[in-house]
Amino acid sequence: MSEKTPLLPVREKAYAKLNISLDVTARRGDGYHDMLMIMQTVSLCDEITIEPDEGGEVSALTGLPYVPGDRRNLAVRAALQFLELVGDEGRGMKITMRKAVPVGAGMAGGSADAAAVLRALNRAYGEPFGAEALCAAGESVGSDVAFCLRGGTALASGRGERLTPLPALPPCRFVIVKPDFSISTPELFRKLDSVKLSCHPDTEGLLAAIGNGDLDGMCRRMYNVFEDVPDRRMRSIRAAKGALLDCGALGALMTGTGSAVFGVFRDAKSAEATRETLRGEYRFCRTAESVGPLL
Ligand code: C5P
After folding, report:
1. Which ligand 1 atom is at minimum distance from the Cα of 257?
2. Does residue 5 sit within a domain?
3. Whose CA is nearest to atom 2 of ligand 1?
């Protein structure tokens, strides 16, 4: 067996993320924005399996008609990037994804798949790369891939790829609902550019609350500037937040550029009761918990 033959098949979980806060601090010259975000990995995940493909192509299979299986898929791009780095271009692979993380929800589903592919291939090839090198590979695939690689709780800045690890959130459970529409990230960034933001998250206060294990203090300060973008879909976002708060959530927020909204609950029992209450109203309604660092 050649040194570069990967041990396949390999399986990996692609965990979603939630934004405990999201601030946009500047518009940059390169088409991106500078961000300041507190991110949390959660247990909701896609299941990724990578198998050899004798045809020499890298492709993805999701079973979802609206998710492409070619280079437009971030998981395929991540695999091609990895193969180039490891010097094994031309190796065929079939990436099968059992999707549970909704698409167009602000939960970094596509980035999480890409990150899972990088972690899985690194294992299959005998760990040739450390965390830094894998993150550098991930950054070229998408702004959220580096966070999805490392996982846990982190402060993200720059495009989202500069990460400072944070202590774990105080113990809590999440209920995540998604209205029946998706939101395009570039579209919402364009709309954000057309307004002057007057409110920003108190990131320092949030960091202090998390550091002190103060769940109420954290929930009071959760804030996402994308909720202030003039867009009629934000009415449904506010309604979803209201529904979660009515069920007793300590705080509720849209994650990323939406359209998923989550509520924070003190324990599994109140989260489960809320899921029971809201599952008739929201086709996508799940409970989740925090997941610690992955790399
Ligand atoms: O990096 P990624 O491909 O995930 O970004 C998708 C789009 O989101 C970018 O093309 C850009 O329009 C927007 N974006 C941004 N600033 C960021 C991250 C993403 O403007 N920090």
Report:
1. 8
2. no
3. 142
